[in-house]
Amino acid sequence: RLFLLGSAFGALLFQRGHLVLHGNAIKIDGRCMICVGASGAGKSTLAAAFARRGYPVLADDVVPVDANAAALPGLPRIKLWQDAAEWLGIETAGLRRIRPDMAKFNMPLAEDDRAVSAPAPIRWIYILGQDVTLEDVRIVPIHGMARFGPLRNNTYRVRYLQGMKLGPVHLERCGALAGQVHLARVTRPDVAEPEQAARVDALVDRLLADMRDNG
After folding, report:
1. Hey, is 81 helix, strand or coil?
2. Which of 3, 35, 180, 192 has CA 20 to 30 A from 210's CA?
3. Number of neighbouring beta carbons within 10 Å of residue 196
4. What's the pLDDT tens digit per position in 155-185?
5. Does the pLDDT at position 116 exceed 80?
6. What does each C-alpha distance from 130 to 18, 40, 71, 88, 154 come to in angstroms?
7. What DSSP character marks residue 109?
């Protein structure tokens, strides 16, 4: 189940001609915000925090993007680590583990928690990271030719591109997407667990403010 709904699903989406990003897609007032970043950056935790505020989660982990730079609805769940679920006040006792030996769970999304009907045009993409030296969230826009690298680096299973001979198509799709979105690098402090819940809520507030300023 884990690999069919992850790697195999991603491969099928590439074969269908989609750009596939490794991140989370959130619907914000009819448009889409995508958060990408390395494993452990907090993408799914952030998606769950947005869902808790009533923003629909369009896709988690595997984000298909069509030729019109719109995010397509994905699987109706968020994958959450046990500690992240605890910070967010989410009970995991009745949730399915993604692997028997891993404290990571599939949190199903109810119908009213996600947008299932139509793709949403992508307006914002944020690249999440952490820095132990920071005391507050830092958001730095990315401009010009520097915008292509982050999109390629956060493509889902980027090694598939060579095997499927999709390099030219991927370059074209990344270029088109980069020209239509507000792209920024978001670095948050790496703090102790007792502070995590407040920090996640603060990050949601900062991102919503940045989206308003760059709508």
Report:
1. strand
2. 192
3. 18
4. 999 889 888 999 899 989 999 999 999 999 9
5. no
6. 29, 10, 26, 19, 16
7. -
60, 47 contact by CB (below 8 A): yes
pLDDT tens for each residue of 21-55:
999 999 999 999 999 998 888 899 999 999 989 99
Whether 18 contacts 69, CB under 8 Å: no
Q: Any idea of the CA torsion for 143, 144, 149, 151, to the nearest 10 degrees?
A: 70
Residues 42 and 188: beta-carbon distance below 8 Å: yes
Q: What b-and-e string marks burial along 154-165, b requiring 16 or more CB atoms within 10 Å of the CB?
A: bbbbeebbeeee
pLDDT at 38: 87
Q: Which residues of 99-118 are buried (b: 16+ CB within 10 A; e: fewer)?
A: eeeeebbbbebeeebbbeee
Q: Are 124 and 71 in contact (CB under 8 A)?
A: no
Q: Answer yes or no: are the C-beta atoms of 36 and 21 closer than 8 Å.
A: yes
Q: What's the pTM?
A: 0.90
143: which DSSP letter? -
